[in-house]
Amino acid sequence: MEVKVFTSADAGRWDAFVADRPEATFFHLSDWRKVLENALGHATYYLYAEKAGEIVGILPLGHIRSRLFSNALISTPFCVYGGSVAGDPAVRDALEAAACDLARDLNVDHLELRNLQPSGAGRPVKDLYVTFRKTLDPDPETNLKAIPRKQRAMIRKGIQAGLESVIDESVDRFYEIYAESVRNLGTPVFPKSYFRSLKDTFGKMCEILMVEYQGEPVAAVMNFYFRDEVLPYYGGGSTAARQLKANDFMYWEVMRRAVEKGVKTFDYGRSKKGTGSYRFKTHWGFEPQPLHYEYELIRAKELPDINPLNPKYRLFIQAWQKLPLPVSKLIGPWLARSLG
Q: Could you say which DSSP state residue 311 is in?
């Protein structure tokens, strides 16, 4: 067995391996390498283990270098899941050992492996993030009834308000809504080119659902489709969305439309414990599942704490929320690309 570095010629073999491994995720696809490099400007190191000419394990890595935040090697940056995929623990160990060697060569602060399941390697794990995943019924009405009563009432209010959902091929309307939404949360927005890259790179696996009220956009979400799963990933609403219950209606429409496509799993994605998004997802009847983000400390002496719950970022968040939207869209992409 030999650990090698991915080249573009390996894309077909890499993705065939991902398709064949049930524990692999959308974020393990090789095209994320293009997005990280071309849209966000980060170096990538996609490692794979090969035996007798066949790929037997993979580990995608991105290098985030930031003077403001940290210098880290991550699997995978800007993605909720990552880590190694291998059927044999010995293969996994070889890939992760190679990643640790690479992290030391790059002199990063830490290596971060965003595992959906624990690896059992004994590395420090940060107890911060959870994910929410649920099996869908083929009958939309059954899925609606499975949503707790109070949340179901919010969805019905959106329906009664006359909200409609459409699929947008362009990122333009989505970006305006998303930029406003994340500014209101105190978070820098990604460049529009990042979302164009996701749409262009992943094609039909990347879909934008737009919620309209009387023909005007009020909420939008970019969804990823992989195998028989749907993952609403980047979403937000305008000022009018809250009163119209547009976000509630939007996620219901994602669920309803996904069932029509034969999707069996709704992945509500990652949330930090104790946040508004965490509470919102539990109101839908989803049970939180811990994410196992594992760390290998290289230069750092303690686990990183780069998240909005950290008190030292509180003043920054409050100031960002007050920025004029055009200013946040101008400055935000420079900061967002470094968050990882």
A: G
The DSSP code sequence of 27-48 is: GGSTHHHHIIIIIT--EE--EE
* pTM of the model as a whole: 0.93
Q: How far apart are CA 260 and CA 275, in angstroms?
A: 31
The per-residue pLDDT for range 18-68, each reduced to its tens digit, is: 999 999 999 999 999 999 999 999 999 999 999 999 999 999 999 999 877
Are 111 and 298 in contact by the 8 Å Cβ rule? The answer is: yes
Q: Which CATH superfamily hosts domain 137-263?
A: Gcn5-related N-acetyltransferase (GNAT) (3.40.630.30)
Domain extents in the chain: 2-129+291-309, 137-263
Distance CA 27, CA 120 (A): 21
Cα Rg of the chain, angstroms? 20
Longest alpha-carbon distance in the chain: 61
Sheet holding 164-168, edge to edge: 164-168, 206-213, 216-226, 229-237, 265-272, 129-135, 288-290
